[in-house]
Amino acid sequence: MQPFNVNEYLRQHIRTVADWPAPGVQFRDITPLLQDPKVFRVLIDAFVHRYMDRALRPDVVAGLDARGFILGAVVAYELNVGFVPIRKKGKLPFTTVEETYELEYGSATVELHTDAVKPGDRVLLIDDLIATGGTMMAGKKLLEKLGATVTEGAAIVDLPELGGSQRLRDGGLALYTLVDFAGH
């Protein structure tokens, strides 16, 4: 009997959609990971077991809009720590700090409530996928503006050919990902 390989199991449940949202793009769709309760539990447990370790345990989990909310909220709940959303500009009702980052065509801005974290908080920053790394780097900068320390960035999928994971590491962010789609 083969040992259970979490990473391969999760990879088998990620749907690839060809030519979406544009011709030539191989979109990695994580929604099948969320639809099946067993697969969803394996996914969440992969993160929770890592971050239960005292050395990696965060004070707060921050999730990036929008799929990072799904993962981050459940991981935070399981770790018994708080969750904070990092949203697209204009979605948060209270006083915010913002960070603008470049996209392939134009720019985008994300925001965080000014009371979301405290100076010295250890924060796990989570999203579904790392492509160019722009959103995650903007999230890291937002959290640091408020005095928090981002201990690690986590995602289900890394698309290393797009250079985001290397840019994030070069920018001082340790990364943990479960499935790598290099050369696929």
TrEMBL record:
Can the keyword Glycosyltransferase be found in this entry's annotation?
A: yes
GO terms, molecular function: adenine binding; adenine phosphoribosyltransferase activity; AMP binding
Judging by the UniProt lineage, the source's domain of life is: Bacteria
Leading EC class: transferase
Question: Can the keyword Transferase be found in this entry's annotation?
Answer: yes
Q: Which reaction does it catalyse?
A: AMP + diphosphate = 5-phospho-alpha-D-ribose 1-diphosphate + adenine
Q: Where in the cell is it found?
A: Cytoplasm
Q: What is its EC number?
A: 2.4.2.7
Q: Residue ranges of the Phosphoribosyltransferase domain?
A: 33-158
Pathway listed:
Purine metabolism; AMP biosynthesis via salvage pathway; AMP from adenine: step 1/1
Name the UniProt key words of this record, in alphabetical order: Cytoplasm, Glycosyltransferase, Purine salvage, Transferase
GO process annotations (BP): adenine salvage; AMP salvage; purine ribonucleoside salvage
Question: What does the record note on quaternary structure?
Answer: Homodimer.
Among PANTHER family, the record links this protein to: ADENINE PHOSPHORIBOSYLTRANSFERASE (PTHR32315)
Which family, according to the similarity comment? Belongs to the purine/pyrimidine phosphoribosyltransferase family.
Q: Which HAMAP family match?
A: Aden_phosphoribosyltr
**Under what name is this protein listed?**
Adenine phosphoribosyltransferase
Tell me the organism: Acidovorax delafieldii 2AN
